[in-house]
Amino acid sequence: MPKKSLTAASVTRLKPPKKGQVDYFDAGYPGLSLRLSYGGSRSWGFFYRHQDKLRRLTLGPLLVVESGENEPEPRLGTPLTLKGARQLWREARQDVQSGKDPAQVRKRERGAKDFETVSKEWLKRDQEKNRSHGEVERIVKQYLLPHWKHRDVSDIGRRDILDLIDGIADRGAPIMARRVQAYVHRFFKWGVGRGIVDANPATDLPKPGQEKKRDRVLSDDELKAVWNAAVEVGWPFGNAVRLLVLTGARRQEIGGLLWSEVQDDGLRLEGERTKNGEAKVLPLSKPAAAIVEDLPKVADSDFVFTTTGKTPVSGWTKAKRDIDKLADIAPWTIHDLRRTVATGLQRLGVSLQVIEAVLGHTSGSRAGVVGIYQRHSFDPEKASALEAWGAHVMALVEGKKRGEVVALRRGDAQ
What is the pLDDT of residue 407? Predict the structure, then answer.
């Protein structure tokens, strides 16, 4: 590690590394360092040993004052000049020489906050209005709380995060590992902004594996197998999966469906219920409408798929495993059903613009200037396309040959 006699002027001239981070140790002040990170952050720290373990106490970010300005009183966690950092270093070093852990001493002074408490606050203040709030909350409960529930958030470091992420990746889930890492980074970034932690330990961490773009499309035989398995699984997930097959909707759009959204032979979703934030209408084909008509209503709840009456269904992972056991096909995901619907509509002769309207996409043919000036809803074309798709799916289920399904007339869904 670099060691040099730091001065108020020299600390401003130190260059951050091209990647990762580097500690510049202040000669004459054992353990005192200025850490520079690739992202541009600069923070003071104190390296020391307690009970034969090397530890680091974050003192605070670097503060540069102009000549003649008064320096603020140095306090742990606040911006510090070189002079202020050295003062806190002296206090922390005295604790070490007295057999105390300076980090624990300062936690007692400022009141430690455990991860569970802070994560609840983060979910409420930073994530509550996000469409992915439910998924983030699930990840916190499944992956983070079992490891860090009672840990002080300021105690969680880079090594802890890397061990957690590597463990998820090593279990064969690199994509989930990357997503967990992204949420952890967001959590600590929020914590820095709220003054709960001094620095983000997830900054510039290497990402595990590579998130591959999926292109899985279920064959007709596979789609039939999934449909039949969904029928056998039954309420509520089996019914929901069959609606996903017939509509091409996103899982959260069907899983969180409200009875008040079922209107005029279609599903009318407001912007807060769609990924792109735009309201959309999903026409219901005859098979889809029949499924909706047969769905039970739970008490006075507005949720279509619910077991409590108060919240939408949860437990998709277990339901998916049950369907997999019955369908016995190559690995697939719920989201693959959307790609299967899009591909199926294309095979039926539906135009790209109508397919994107069905899926609720604003990219591709509906992006840019076209998206601004082309305000046609395509509702009649969507209804025609999904009716043809519904007929195709039911023909598969009933064992009819493809030729027995009436193809779209030219212009029906163009």
Answer: 45
